[in-house]
Amino acid sequence: MTSLVDIVPPGVVTGDDLLTLLQHARTEGYAIPAVNCTSSSTANAVLEAARKSKSPVIIQVSNGGGAFLAGKGIKFADAAAAGSVALAMHVRSVAKYYGIPVVLHSDHCAKKLLPWFDAMLKADEEFFAKFGEPLYSSHMLDLSEEPDDENIAICVEYFKRMAPMKIWLEMEIGITGGEEDGVNNENVDPEKLYTSPEQVYAVYDALSKVGDMFSIAAAFGNVHGVYKPGNVVLSPERLGKHQEYARKMLNSPLEKPIYLVMHGGSGSTDDEIKTAVKNGVIKMNIDTDTQWAYWDGLRNFEKEKHDYLQGQIGNPTGADKPNKKFYDPRVWVRKAEETMVERVMVSCDKLGSKGTYEPADPEQGSPQIGEINGPNPIVLMTAAAIVGSAATLLVKAMMK
Ligand SMILES: [Zn+2]
């Protein structure tokens, strides 16, 4: 097994490093957990879990998560994009101190949300112009509600715009059931919940003409959220059929020519996850289970410290005792983080990504966003200003 540490750097990975990372996952047969984050607190919990699990990780933001990050108290058209950029900047500021590779990704983008996608791409292009890499490593387009031809055609157009920056594209064909982030597929035709090998191959055929950095979220009866077992059966073995069909059509030497993504992973059994990963799933989304874990930590804390949390002063140890060290958000938010960290670590274990990356020790020093992979524009500007003022002084001296 090639050591991941030798081929992929710590910190936010984009472009060729991202391709290397996902190739490694496909070859070695593991998947990377992709956890939805809606705050710097949840993002830090994911980074901490990845460091403790010695695993690469994917931090992803949904449209609703982006809007939440911008603040629920204001409404403006670009709120989701502004919040998504804010999350990316936060992660970029701290990721390298965790010493593991981090992929920045945006989640489902339906047709009506394309303005969000456009705005994120604009941010990627601006970041690319300054630092030589995009702000985000990867984005998802989910036009699975549209007819296949239209879904694929729109993906191809966007992929052309992303390819020069080497941004990964995840697309969805077939429908993930359930409800997530305001999209309700609870009553959809059950047959649409299973993508066919021909559909998957049609996507591969169209996108591979533009580039090789793409993955497909094919539906195999997966459902967003956690429900009681119902009529739809999760069939991860169907993913093997997609690989087999593509291999035959391409005459490919690769056992698993297609990068597959698993949505609706929350509530899946260990065997279902194993089968999915065996069949080429390199990324599994986790949202519902980590939402519960985050809440559960706070729930337990409130239960345990209830009598210390009823007023600023006064608790079982005395009527005049202060309670600041219980209601300080850093105390109770941390409790939520701790249980979320544990839950993400469980996913690293189940997906086989645990132990693949020996974390580097955090670098010391004042972090600058641009230091991570390119020249720092602030340093460059300062240097230019110093040179400029020295030249002015020189000219003044010569004129005397
Ligand atoms: Zn999903």
From TrEMBL:
InterPro entries membership: Aldolase_TIM, FBA_II, Fruct_bisP_bact
GO molecular function: fructose-bisphosphate aldolase activity; zinc ion binding
Cross-referenced CDD domains: FBP_aldolase_IIA
Keywords: Glycolysis, Lyase, Membrane, Metal-binding, Transmembrane, Transmembrane helix, Zinc
GO biological process, one term: glycolytic process
GO cellular component assignments: cytosol
Entry EC no(s): 4.1.2.13
Signal peptide location: none
Reactions accelerated catalytically: beta-D-fructose 1,6-bisphosphate = D-glyceraldehyde 3-phosphate + dihydroxyacetone phosphate
Source organism, top-level taxon: Eukaryota
Spans through the membrane: 378-395
Stored Pfam families: F_bP_aldolase
Enzymatic class: lyase
Family: Belongs to the class II fructose-bisphosphate aldolase family.
PANTHER family reported for this sequence: FRUCTOSE-BISPHOSPHATE ALDOLASE, FRUCTOSE-BISPHOSPHATE ALDOLASE CLASS 2
Protein role: Catalyzes the aldol condensation of dihydroxyacetone phosphate (DHAP or glycerone-phosphate) with glyceraldehyde 3-phosphate (G3P) to form fructose 1,6-bisphosphate (FBP) in gluconeogenesis and the reverse reaction in glycolysis.
Name of this chain's protein: fructose-bisphosphate aldolase
Protein species of origin: Seminavis robusta
Organism phylogeny: Eukaryota, Sar, Stramenopiles, Ochrophyta, Bacillariophyta
